[in-house]
Model the fold of this input.
Amino acid sequence: HGKALALLDNRYKDKLTSLPKEKGWFTENLHLYQDFWHESARVVSAVTVMASQDNFQAQPTDIYIATLQKSGTTWVKALSFAIINRTIYKTNSLSTHPLQILNPHRCVPFVEIEALHRLPTYVDGHSPRLFSTHMPYTSLPKSVLDNGCRIVYICRNPKDVLVSLFYYANRLRDKSIGQLTFEEAFEMFTKGVIPLGPYWDHVKGYYMAALERPKEILFLTYEDMQKDTVNNVKRLAEFLGYPFSKEEEDEGEVDKIVKLCSFETLKDVNKHGVVNKGFPNDVFFRKGKIGDWTNHLTDEMSQCLDEITKIKFDGLDISF
Ligand code: A3P
Done:
């Protein structure tokens, strides 16, 4: 991706230099583009969002998994891929299933990365095309909304997102900018200064859109998925247009998919190797639990985030 990124950087250089800046989580800077913060020089960045908006063409049968990072992207990618392809890749021959060999991020491409490719991932009228994106709702390429494409959004308790992002960023940060302390990470998070942030605006954008367009947008939470995986996987399958039949349910197909995509299974498959340069496979699998924030936030920090969340999500029915 390096060369393609460098070309894009040149093309959008002028646009980038005029944007407000803050200290980055992965690279030196974040840029404020269309009211959200984006890393300056990674594959999911202000530049690749601009390129997606200019070049990406959605098709009506496309399906998009939209998330703010660390909210359950990898999990929903694996589940959606396994659900949609279950007649091609049989869950009863598990050892040859792509998810037993490849990282979920290799099975479901990011729109932002697709914009870098000269050759498309999907060819010959492949349908449905399954993509993921971190873009805020208001920044999605116009054709995604105009074509009425289906979008699955998953959100997660902001405190667990903060903890997850803190570890993730420290593993992937440019060496030249040193490590983040948890206090610094907390400060930046509360100010909304995280990649794809403010957190609350990203979530609210999709939440409101899902209320307006329930047939096209499914709003899930990481916590619901954890507490009742089976029923949420069934809901997901229905929304994707691949509901489980009675026979499949009787044969335990739902449970097989849940197991194939479980944290334990995927963590084991992804112990070694890389998704692409700079992204080790194992970086996407840390603890996979609800509530690790209790091991990291002081009472004061926790109260502070509760207060912000209460104000920002006032009137919304989101519980973690
Ligand atoms: P933790 O850092 O709290 O462990 P994303 O995929 O959006 O980047 O989110 C990563 C978070 O989801 C990490 O959280 C990771 O461990 C967790 N995760 C990854 N795969 C999972 C799975 N199959 N089931 C549940 N959680 C998973």
